[in-house]
């Protein structure tokens, strides 16, 4: 199962892995990757690239095509950053794995995407305890070439720092989870993937679009802020944007009044369907029922 920890940028970060630098960055040390580590990248890359045509949204495919992300080697963050910087002003910086929330938000607010420096073990291709270079670079970085996502993730960084002060991080984290990590978008008359947690996962790339089990609901900000999510398995609900540009409107909303309003309502389980939901497809829930 490769859905674990995909957005756990800070939640479980301990002090054990703290590097010397205050912003938790480390050198990527690209030359030190072993042939086995590059081979793991190649296996994951090929598996996903075979699955994604017709499933990933155009912005992802386009970003991937224009970046120096190659089949046979772990990407060099400096080369990635050069191209990103020219297009959307972003950089990729290496971190040991999970970083504390405030560090993560500071990076995003300054258009630096912290990416795990390590790659998962070859015998654990579908198991992730912390986001690695494949999840972070293959999953997230192509979308950073899209101006809308570039602005949205920066705004999320600012919003995260503010939500920390307001004690509303949990509500904001659900927005990140159901968009940047597990978001779907309408495109060309179908649903397509833009979330990094999905595009970097072979099994969830199929599950989210093809399984009759999960719900697929129209995105509604206040609804999403109330909705729990799965960190240990596939999602039970996917929220669908009408268009990626809707993220920009999200970035402009003042969340503070919403935190108060939503904070007074019950939190919803990950598989809830409300009478007010815009149901695109109602799942039968079978996948998760069988796993209980
Ligand atoms: Fe992620």
TrEMBL record:
Question: Which prosthetic group or cofactor does it need?
Answer: Fe(2+)
Occurrences of domain Biopterin-dependent aromatic amino acid hydroxylase family profile (ranges): 1-292
Q: In which pathway does it act?
A: Amino-acid degradation; L-phenylalanine degradation; acetoacetate and fumarate from L-phenylalanine: step 1/6
* GO MF, one annotated term: iron ion binding
Q: What class of enzyme is it?
A: oxidoreductase
Show the segment(s) annotated as Disordered: 1-20
Reaction it catalyzes: (6R)-L-erythro-5,6,7,8-tetrahydrobiopterin + L-phenylalanine + O2 = (4aS,6R)-4a-hydroxy-L-erythro-5,6,7,8-tetrahydrobiopterin + L-tyrosine
Please give the family membership noted in the entry. Belongs to the biopterin-dependent aromatic amino acid hydroxylase family.
User: Under which name does UniProt file this protein?
Assistant: Phenylalanine-4-hydroxylase
- Classification of source organism: Bacteria, Pseudomonadati, Pseudomonadota, Betaproteobacteria, Burkholderiales
């Amino acid at each position: 199962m490769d859905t674990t920890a995909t957005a756990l940028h800070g939640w479980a970060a301990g002090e054990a892995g703290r590097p010397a630098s205050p912003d938790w960055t480390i050198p990527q040390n690209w030359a030190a990757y072993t042939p086995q580590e590059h081979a793991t990248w190649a296996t994951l890359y090929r598996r996903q690239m075979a699955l994604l045509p017709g499933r990933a949204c155009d912005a992802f495919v386009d970003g991937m095509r224009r970046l120096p992300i190659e089949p046979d080697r772990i990407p060099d963050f400096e080369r990635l950053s050069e191209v990103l910087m020219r297009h959307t002003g972003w950089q990729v910086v290496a971190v040991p794995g999970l970083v504390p929330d405030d560090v993560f938000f500071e990076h995003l607010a300054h258009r630096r995407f912290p990416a795990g420096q390590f790659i998962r073990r070859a015998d654990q291709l579908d198991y992730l305890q912390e986001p690695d270079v494949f999840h972070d670079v293959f999953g997230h970085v192509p979308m950073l070439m899209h101006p809308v996502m570039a602005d949205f993730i920066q705004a999320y960084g600012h919003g995260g720092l503010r939500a920390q002060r307001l004690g509303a991080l949990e509500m904001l984290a659900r927005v990140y989870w159901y968009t940047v990590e597990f978001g779907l978008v309408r495109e060309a008359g179908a649903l397509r993937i833009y979330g990094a947690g999905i595009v970097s996962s072979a099994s969830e790339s199929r599950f989210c679009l093809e399984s009759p089990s999960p719900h697929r609901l129209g995105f509604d900000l206040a609804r999403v802020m109330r909705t729990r999510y799965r960190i240990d398995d596939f999602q039970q609900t996917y929220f669908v944007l009408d268009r990626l540009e809707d993220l920009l409107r999200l970035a402009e909303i003042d969340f503070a009044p919403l935190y108060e309003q939503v904070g007074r309502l019950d939190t919803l389980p990950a598989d809830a369907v409300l009478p007010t939901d815009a149901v695109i497809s109602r799942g039968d829930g079978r996948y998760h029922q069988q796993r209980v």
